[in-house]
Amino acid sequence: MTALDVTRDAAVAHVTFSAPPMNIVTTDVFVELRDVWKALDKDPAVRVVVFRSGDPDFFLAHVDINMILEAPDDGRMPMQVNPFQRLCADVHFSSTVSIAEIAGRVGGGGSEFCASCDMRFGALGRTVVNQMEVALGILPGGGGTQWIPRLIGHGRALEMILGAEDIDAETAERWGYLNRALPADRLSAFVSEVAGRIAGFPPEAVALAKRSVGNAFTMPILDGLKQESALFAEAIRSPRARAALQGFLAAGGQTRDAELNIVELLRNL
Question: DSSP string spanning 94-163?
């Protein structure tokens, strides 16, 4: 029985979690998620992947506790990236855009996975985040201590991780964990619109822009600026970029009336 359902809408892939009774990340769910991601990431026709849940109450609950209890221990201190961390890093550093549409409860490793995605959107009154590990005598081991502070800062990350309290959608949005918290009945349509819009832009520009933004968290600013300059030069050489720039001017770009409605102008290029 599959735990993930994959559908396509042009260049957007939707991955829906469906692993009763509550979308716990078992070994089988993890392996399927890893394999689905690898396949989608290698597909040049897929530019954006949206993760969502078929369960109205749970996005991803957490990693199966039995996996943790049964993990082999040879007494040594491992100093390498573990498989769950590797999956999250692959998602984060890919040129494919990843969006988590969180319309229910997410916790533990499920939250770590969401934090590694490029964007997260939640539902008012339904989205709840709980980083539960410290209350169980452990700590986030799927990358949460690295991804979450990059989203919400040191103090709030410690409140989330050490406190093990429920964080509602409004708070998660205010802290920066969620890009936006929307009414539940608007969430899917909004996320689909964002994903479709990004997927319709020149893919080289999307990939290079994502890479340059990522450099802000891994490079000193002067190095990041140099890389931005190099990536800009790479982008401008693309025939699609030239065509888009010329199309912008032909459609009325750099005129007052057109640029007062620039979103519509860009959508129609």
Answer: SSSEEEEEE-SEEEHHHHHHHHHSSEEEEEETT-EEE--GGGGTS---SSHHHHHHHHH-HHHHHHHHHH
What confidence tens digit (pLDDT) does each residue in 152-192 have?
Answer: 999 999 999 999 999 999 999 999 999 999 999 999 999 99
Cα separations in angstroms, 181 against 166, 168, 253:
15, 10, 33
pTM, rounded to two decimals: 0.94
Q: Quote the CA–CA distance of 256 and 127 in Å, as a whole number.
A: 41
Question: In the chain, which residue ranges form alpha helices assigned H by DSSP?
Answer: 27-42, 65-69, 83-93, 108-116, 144-152, 154-163, 169-175, 184-199, 203-215, 221-236, 239-250, 256-259, 262-267
**Are the beta carbons of 86 and 92 closer than 8 angstroms?**
no
Torsion of CA 126, 129, 130, 131, to 10 degrees: 160
Residues 164-192 as b/e (b if ≥16 CB within 10 A, e otherwise) read: beebbbebbbebebbbebbebeebbeebb
Handedness of CA 107, 115, 90, 14 (dihedral sign): positive
Integer distance in angstroms from the first to the last C-alpha of the chain? 43
CATH code of the region 4-199: 3.90.226.10
- Residue 71, φ and ψ in degrees, nearest 5: -65, 135
Closest CA to 213 of 115, 92, 110: 92
pLDDT in tens, 215-263: 999 999 999 999 999 999 999 999 999 999 999 999 999 999 999 999 9
Domain range list for the chain = 4-199, 203-267
